[in-house]
Design a protein that fits this description.
Helix 7 (about 115-130) packs across helix 8. The chain is an alpha/beta fold and about 650 residues long. The strands form 9 sheets. The chain has a 7-stranded mixed beta sheet, sandwiched between helices. A 5-stranded parallel beta sheet has the order 7-6-8-11-12, with helices on both faces. The two termini are about 25 Å apart. The structure holds adenosine-5'-monophosphate-propyl ester. The site of adenosine-5'-monophosphate-propyl ester has 21 residues, from helix 13, strand 20, strand 24 and strand 25.
Length: about 650
């Protein structure tokens, strides 16, 4: 991750080419400033106009923003619309035969779905959900491979007003159970198996395991999409139904449920610094508007684009920039089931050539790993169709940025480094590519209408060059509405008292450079960012502590060349501290345990054992010291509050 020193030395500026600027949806800094000025002088008028331009309303709204019950803001609250209608029906007149999705499966086979076909498949599946008694407001958990059907499932929920909660297919049965339970889901949609990198994962069996753990009585049916030929080991005639049998013979037209603008569209769980993952609840209209504004401004959407976002629908990026954003604006998009390294590290580049991709959006971690595995591989492919590149999920180091720019973008494609979060629903800080000159490593300037500030602990603005906390000072349409079932936690987490409850606290530290550009430095809380995936240290610690061998555990992040950050766990066992081969064996068991409790993405890279953990006299674990030890750094800070200083020496030599 970049340090303030190194980023302050970054002086390279890449303005858009004349050609890009002239054709861009927002052209030049004049275009950017005009939009910002409108937002500054008439905030509600600005958002109201965009909502009328980019959203199709069943019943127009008369009120833009209601701040009376802050921070529970309401946008366009008396308007009615349906997100699925906006993604499908409204395109039928002009682009029914346009390809909506080019699907490339793990094995390389390709299928295409037009807007008309997608519309009918969504309608038919929506009728399937209805036939099982799903009604507006019911929760549906989606635990699917990254296929067209996952998007159909999400769109079908949106169509009938059911609230979907997608659980990433890489999460384990335990994590799935927690989410089903918190959402009190009525239906789980899964597949017999998912296939990635040539390997199958038995999602149906994992769903059975999740339900078997207990306390999932709310689930009435499990719908199973048949992705492969393999038969699930267990099948319950009363509780399981195959997707294809459910929809058989059902009408392929389904009137959308007209939703109030503020009705929830979905809940997506994400990690925080404390407790269990939080159910981030998004609205219908405001959320959807955020995706459309950014498709137009940040991704500079053009009718003949072939757009490809490599995220999985299990994350917010897959929600906003696969399931809703591109379909809402009527784009042709690529959906890829597999992994970037299978069958080799040229897969992304081969697919860009094959599908003539124009707009490519991926994560820095993928870029770094592909540089390492084959920095020259892209030269074997014709990448000249590309016109715009994007990154998301974590800071990108200037070296990786330059490689992306030169080797992938041929020096001609602007890079939009987009900063945002599960909670913000859509891009917040990112260059508008035809206007803002980019700098390697900076996400540059906020989108027009997004009011950011970098402040100290008291909420006072911080001068350029100094690190502070990134906040958003005014509500915006795609902002999280609440934490599902926990309004109090929503308020205290995101609108804390230290800022008088007025600012949205992002949880990232950042600083401005001399051009007013924003540089994200990383999280200020106990949240790790491993390969662009957000993980709470607490979650991993609780998983470890639930193992019968473990007395106590503390988890910290350590910078990692490819993953950005990696997980290091310090563990105290109930018995003696293990060393040598015994230690290695237990460490292996604990890594497998974490994979089973949460998922492989949360597995510690390193586990170290100690007789104890460094604690203050009041019993608080001093994680910053553990971070030093994990990095192999000298401890230069004050340790006078430490109860047991001798433990530092032991932990320093505890590498197995
Ligand atoms: O720390 C920031 C980092 O990812 C966090 C949000 O994670 P999540 O909710 O999982 O959403 C990821 C995809 C939007 C942020 O708090 N982050 C995201 N984008 C960037 C970033 N850090 C630096 N630069 C980015 N472009």
């Amino acid at each position: 991750m970049s340090s303030i020193d190194s980023v302050l030395k970054e002086t390279r500026l890449f303005p858009p080419s004349d050609d890009f600027r002239t054709k861009a949806n927002v052209s030049g800094m004049e275009g950017y400033h005009t939009l910002c000025e409108k937002a500054n002088s008439d905030y509600q008028g600005f958002w109201g106009d965009l909502a009328r331009e980019l959203v199709s309303w069943r019943k127009p709204f008369t009120k833009v923003l209601d701040e009376s019950n802050a921070p529970f803001f309401k946008w366009f609250e008396d308007g009615e619309m349906n997100v699925s209608y906006n993604c499908l029906d409204r395109h039928l007149e002009s682009k029914a035969n346009k390809v909506a999705i080019i699907f490339e499966a793990d094995d390389g086979s390709v299928s295409r779905v037009t807007y008309r076909e997608l519309y009918h498949r969504v309608c038919q599946f929506a009728n399937g959900l209805k036939s099982l008694g799903v009604v507006k407001g019911d929760r549906v958990v989606i635990y699917m491979p990254h296929t067209v059907e996952a998007v159909i499932a999400m769109q079908a929920c949106a169509r009938i007003g059911a609230i979907h909660s997608v659980v990433f297919g890489g999460f384990s049965a335990g994590a799935l159970r927690d989410r089903i339970q918190d959402a009190t889901a009525k239906i789980v949609i899964t597949a017999n198996e998912s296939v990635r990198g040539g390997k199958a994962t038995p999602l149906k069996a994992m769903t059975d395991e999740a339900l078997g753990i207990g306390n999932c009585e709310s689930v009435e049916k499990v719908i199973v999409f048949q992705r492969t030929g393999t038969k699930p080991d267990h099948w319950s005639e009363s509780n399981n139904v195959w997707w294809h049998q459910l929809v058989k013979g059902l009408p392929d037209i389904c009137e959308p449920e007209w939703m109030n603008a503020e009705d929830p569209l979905f809940v997506l769980y994400t990690s925080g610094s404390t407790g269990k993952p939080k159910g981030i609840q998004h609205s219908s209209a405001g959320y959807f508007l955020g995706t459309q504004v950014s498709m137009k401004w940040v991704f500079d959407y053009k009718e003949d684009d072939v757009y490809w976002c490599t995220a999985d629908v299990g994350w917010i990026t897959g929600h906003s920039y696969i399931a809703y954003g591109p379909l809402g604006i009527g784009a042709t998009q690529v959906i890829f089931e597999g992994v970037p390294t299978y069958p080799d590290a040229g897969r992304f580049w081969a697919m860009i050539e094959k599908h003539q991709v124009t707009t490519f959006y991926t994560a820095p971690t993928a870029i770094r790993s592909l540089i390492k595995l084959g920095g020259d591989l892209p030269k074997q492919y014709d990448l000249s169709s590309l016109r715009l590149l994007g990154t998301v999920g974590e800071p990108i180091n200037p070296d990786a940025w330059m490689w992306y720019h030169e080797v992938i973008g041929g020096g001609r494609c602007p890079i939009v480094d987009t900063w945002w979060q599960t909670e913000t629903g859509s891009n917040m800080v990112a260059p508008l590519p035809g206007a803002v000159a980019t700098k390697p490593g900076s996400c540059t300037l906020p989108l027009p209408g997004i009011m950011t500030a970098i402040v100290d602990e008291s909420g006072a603005p911080i001068e350029p060059g100094k690190g502070g906390s990134l906040v958003i000072t005014r509500p915006f349409p795609s902002l999280v509405r609440t934490i599902y079932n926990d309004a109090a936690r929503f308020k205290s987490t995101y609108f804390p008292d230290e800022f008088n409850g007025k600012y949205y606290l992002a949880g990232d530290s950042a600083h401005y450079d001399e051009h007013g550009y924003i540089w994200i430095m990383g999280r200020i809380d106990d949240v790790l960012n491993v390969s662009g995936h957000r993980l709470g240290t607490m979650e991993i610690e609780s998983a470890l502590a639930a193992n019968p061998l473990v007395a106590e555990a503390a988890v910290v992040g350590r910078p990692h060349e490819i993953k950005g950050e990696s997980v290091v766990a310090f563990v105290v066992l109930k018995g003696d501290r293990p060393e040598g081969e015994e230690g290695k064996l237990i460490a292996k068991q604990l890594r497998e345990w974490v994979a089973h409790e949460i998922g492989k993405i949360a597995q510690p890279d390193e586990i170290r054992f100690g007789d104890n953990l460094p604690k203050t006299r009041s019993g608080k674990i001093m994680r910053r010291l553990l971070r030093n030890i994990a990095k192999g750094e000298e401890i230069t800070q004050d340790i006078s509050t430490l109860e047991n200083p001798a433990i530092l020496e032991q932990l320093r030599h505890s590498a197995l």
